[in-house]
Amino acid sequence: MNKKIISGFAIAASAALTFGVVASVPASAAVKEVTIAYQGPLTGDAAQTGIDEVNAVKYALKKYNDTKPAVKINLVTIDDQGAGAVALTVAPGAAANKKIIAIVGPAFSGATISSLPYYKAARLPMISPSATNVTLTDKKSVNYGYPVFHRVPSTDAFQGPALAKWAVQNQKSPKVYVVDDKSPYGTGLASFVKKALASGTLGGSDSTPDDTKDFAATISKVKSTDSNVVIYTGYYAQAAILLNQLRAAGFKGDFAAGDGVMSQSFIDGAGKNAEGALLVAPTIPLSVGNPTMEADYVKVMGAASGEYSAETITITNLFIEAVKSGVSTRSAMLNFINGYKGLTAVGTKLSFDRNGDNNGAAAIGGFIVKGGKTVAIEVVK
Amino acid sequence: MINLRDKGAEFWERSNRPVRVLTVFAILAVIAALPYAGNSFLQTPIAAFDAVLVYPMGMFILMALGLNVVVGKSGMLDLGYVAFFAVGAYTMALLSTHTGLNTWEIMPIGIIAAMIAGVLLAIPTLRLRGDYLAIVTLGFGEIVRVSALNSESIGGALGIAGIPFPPGLGFEYQLLDQKYFYWTILVMILLVIWVIRRLTVRRPGRAWESIRQDEDAAELMGVSTYKYKIWAFVFGAAIGGGAGVFYASRSMVIAPDNFTLNTSILILACVVFGGMGNIWGVIVGAAILGYLPDRFRFLSDARLLLFGLVLVIFMNLRPEGILPRKKREKAIVKKGSGATL
Amino acid sequence: MFDTLIHQFWSLTYSGIALGFIYVLIAMGYTMVYGVLRMINFANSEIFTVGAFATMIVSKYVFDFSAEMIPPSNAKLFLVIICCLAASMLVSGLLAFLVELVAYRHLRNRTSNRIAPLISAIGIGIVISEVVRILTRARTQFSPNVVPKKALFTFQGAEIRLDNTVTIFAGLALFIILERFIKLSRLGKGIRAVSMDEDSAKLMGVNLNRVISLTFILGGLMTGAAGFFYVNVYENVKYNMGFSLGLAAFTAAVIGGIGNIRGAFFGGIALGLVEIYASAIVGTQWKPVTVFIILILILLFRPNGIFGEAIQKTRV
């Protein structure tokens, strides 16, 4: 036993040393600089969204910092795994970290709701590239993010009806089956889709939590209701699994989904089954809206941009402009954002209303998967 | 045989009253001063240290103490402990947003709600033996979480937001400086320790101990094992419920994904890691396992991997936990008997 | 509410049985270990995950399967199936052996505390799934199906698909082989002897460590096979896939009577059917609630599961 105690102490001592070394890295630096943060899922099930976004932030910051500016901008990444429970443990830290003057994010609505109280109290301004839940900018909701919360994309209240409309375009007498994934995003969007469907076209609905592997029951319901359109409100990986099983079971109708599925991973996963899938998203991909920047992005980052890259670059550029104009505190940043009038990376207008919504929010884009790629077709009105 | 637990006990036995009082106060002072230690090597990257002290550390300690009564003291394997935490949290969330009651008024209601949930679960299931109990409690935890997730009337997947802070008691609870929350939870922990120690030396504690060592023998000796098992369960549930009420009040937002099976398993790991049955061990275990993942945040990707390794290595080095229970309390082993843990 | 069930009964039943056989095989990993050690092998779900990854890797990277390719000839297909299945089984069997060595053996000899091995097994499980997560960057990996998903014939409106059929028959064959092995072989007798009474078995000259290792390996082989069938039917793998499936398989083992391999067989198929029917009747989101309520009800009336405990017959 004695030996074990000694070895235990040895472990503790070496651990303390390691911590000590790590903690003693000097925090202050001579160069004048400000820090912004990115918050989103960098690990966990939804990591792809976060990694795409954080790369877009890094791209914009690299372009700026390479110009040897007077004030350098640093980036802190905050991993909330896209989950409210995790956001609760990181948000107080970000709020208390006085060096952070603005946040790009949070990426997901659920994590935003959990983080908001802290950022409101710390008056830490944030602009999200992808949190589309309506309650965040709804004055009557407890989740109301005023004054700190802003976002670039338009909300589920616009996306839902657009999805409902876009999904039925190929069917003369559509019968729609709606499947959501039980996430805050999926259930929210599904309820707007159901509301917007023309009466009598809703065949039925099911909720399949995101650890569902076997969709046999859901598929049986699609078949027994004779639905010819399936709308899935959830994320890309599950969407591909569902679509593959639908096609294997002989479903011949259309498959439609919202922005959570707008990902090359969906097409890679579903392969030829993805052909003809109808997608909508409150975003114009960088590759479509600004091919020149996309080409430069590929050159700098070594990979194509992702789903919300355009929004993320827009937000980062806004913060860069603010820093150029001398902003170095949270309150100055907040004023700058509220008074901002400019353009997004894809050339649409950008300014925020009192609730934090984008006045010139890009209309909902309609996409079709063709030849293994998502092709932008038109703006869904 | 030297172990830290016996060393501590020996010191305690040898000391006279003033020394004991002084020791207790010195330790308490150090622990209470922890929120001011945020700039030392203890600092957690990204997450704020004072917030980490409240959750996960403080909450884990509270819950681990409650679970310890069920698992460590009376030997029943409960894998659904988070259910009671959830019941307390949802009681707080619903009552505070619908009625105007404050946290301290809801606290007893939340505790009672969790106790009722405990009784409801215990009556049909406590006649089951060890591992069957494990799966049934696990199932109960999932039933509570999934039901909350599927009920739009209590927020569904988005959960409930806008839960108020506890009203201050001569001070105001602050969002960005969580030391008052920490001190409150410290008081709650001390209260729970006191109650558990009272119970342990009295009839229920002796009954639990006899059930843990040999349920059949205890029954033969006239201990109403079923009754005391229910009591252990309900007592554990009450602590979980109380922790849940406070958690909801501090977090202001709760959602079903705060109450997954992983939390139950993590709390169980705290109990075993620290030393089942010994409240000091459980506290140390919960504090370490609550702290480590946030301390290792700078490893980002590898931090859970490291957490798993720590569990494996430490369980192999110290299978009885960091501070195991006293020798005389250890059960006489009957190999293959389901009743011993 | 019951429309779907009536309308699609045979189709649902067929999928349910195929899913059930996957549960049966994973449940072997739990029930064998429990029968011998009286411990829940919490790392079994990760053993399953690794088995499923093995099939994905062999088919995708060794044989260059892809979703767009022309299905190969029967002889080649058969070779690929055998290789994938063997790879999954071997990798999982080996992993199960290592899990026993690292998480259980040392602790088994040192402590009577029955929860300590549980925690160290959970620790191993975390390590395995985190390694897989980091290697795959947490993304779902899609695997081309090896067994083509063509319909063999239609029965009462339900398409009988090749992939489900292979799962059912091969699963049944593996189960029968295992059952016979435990019943008839010398090593199988050793397993039964230890499960009845460890001390007496030791006195009778049974090599305890060898028997326990063998039990883990056998359980791992079965769990690995389940990984192969899973990939064939569902075509995807992910680092945390084992969690929900392992939980379901463990539930199946408890329903049948944990420690009893015939019980696990029954429990697995029953659970597969119950899950699919419940999803069809009350909605997929209520599936776990329905399953656990049924489990609690069963245990109320049969506290040792439907078939009772122990690998063969009863334990004293």
TrEMBL record, chain A:
<keyword id="KW-0732">Signal</keyword>
<dbReference type="InterPro" id="IPR028082">
    <property type="entry name" value="Peripla_BP_I"/>
</dbReference>
<dbReference type="InterPro" id="IPR028081">
    <property type="entry name" value="Leu-bd"/>
</dbReference>
<feature type="domain" description="Leucine-binding protein">
    <location>
        <begin position="33"/>
        <end position="358"/>
    </location>
</feature>
<protein>
    <submittedName>
        <fullName>Unannotated protein</fullName>
    </submittedName>
</protein>
<dbReference type="Pfam" id="PF13458">
    <property type="entry name" value="Peripla_BP_6"/>
</dbReference>
Automatic annotation (TrEMBL), chain B:
<dbReference type="Pfam" id="PF02653">
    <property type="entry name" value="BPD_transp_2"/>
</dbReference>
<keyword id="KW-1133">Transmembrane helix</keyword>
<feature type="transmembrane region" description="Helical">
    <location>
        <begin position="79"/>
        <end position="100"/>
    </location>
</feature>
<feature type="transmembrane region" description="Helical">
    <location>
        <begin position="21"/>
        <end position="38"/>
    </location>
</feature>
<dbReference type="GO" id="GO:0005886">
    <property type="term" value="C:plasma membrane"/>
</dbReference>
<feature type="transmembrane region" description="Helical">
    <location>
        <begin position="298"/>
        <end position="317"/>
    </location>
</feature>
<keyword id="KW-0812">Transmembrane</keyword>
<dbReference type="InterPro" id="IPR043428">
    <property type="entry name" value="LivM-like"/>
</dbReference>
<feature type="transmembrane region" description="Helical">
    <location>
        <begin position="44"/>
        <end position="67"/>
    </location>
</feature>
<protein>
    <submittedName>
        <fullName>Unannotated protein</fullName>
    </submittedName>
</protein>
<dbReference type="GO" id="GO:0015658">
    <property type="term" value="F:branched-chain amino acid transmembrane transporter activity"/>
</dbReference>
<feature type="transmembrane region" description="Helical">
    <location>
        <begin position="230"/>
        <end position="249"/>
    </location>
</feature>
<feature type="transmembrane region" description="Helical">
    <location>
        <begin position="180"/>
        <end position="196"/>
    </location>
</feature>
<feature type="transmembrane region" description="Helical">
    <location>
        <begin position="261"/>
        <end position="292"/>
    </location>
</feature>
<keyword id="KW-1003">Cell membrane</keyword>
TrEMBL record, chain C:
<feature type="transmembrane region" description="Helical">
    <location>
        <begin position="115"/>
        <end position="135"/>
    </location>
</feature>
<dbReference type="GO" id="GO:0015192">
    <property type="term" value="F:L-phenylalanine transmembrane transporter activity"/>
</dbReference>
<keyword id="KW-0997">Cell inner membrane</keyword>
<keyword id="KW-0812">Transmembrane</keyword>
<protein>
    <submittedName>
        <fullName>Unannotated protein</fullName>
    </submittedName>
</protein>
<feature type="transmembrane region" description="Helical">
    <location>
        <begin position="12"/>
        <end position="33"/>
    </location>
</feature>
<dbReference type="InterPro" id="IPR037294">
    <property type="entry name" value="ABC_BtuC-like"/>
</dbReference>
<dbReference type="GO" id="GO:0015188">
    <property type="term" value="F:L-isoleucine transmembrane transporter activity"/>
</dbReference>
<keyword id="KW-0472">Membrane</keyword>
<dbReference type="InterPro" id="IPR001851">
    <property type="entry name" value="ABC_transp_permease"/>
</dbReference>
<feature type="transmembrane region" description="Helical">
    <location>
        <begin position="265"/>
        <end position="283"/>
    </location>
</feature>
<feature type="transmembrane region" description="Helical">
    <location>
        <begin position="239"/>
        <end position="258"/>
    </location>
</feature>
<dbReference type="GO" id="GO:1903806">
    <property type="term" value="P:L-isoleucine import across plasma membrane"/>
</dbReference>
<dbReference type="GO" id="GO:0005304">
    <property type="term" value="F:L-valine transmembrane transporter activity"/>
</dbReference>
<dbReference type="InterPro" id="IPR052157">
    <property type="entry name" value="BCAA_transport_permease"/>
</dbReference>
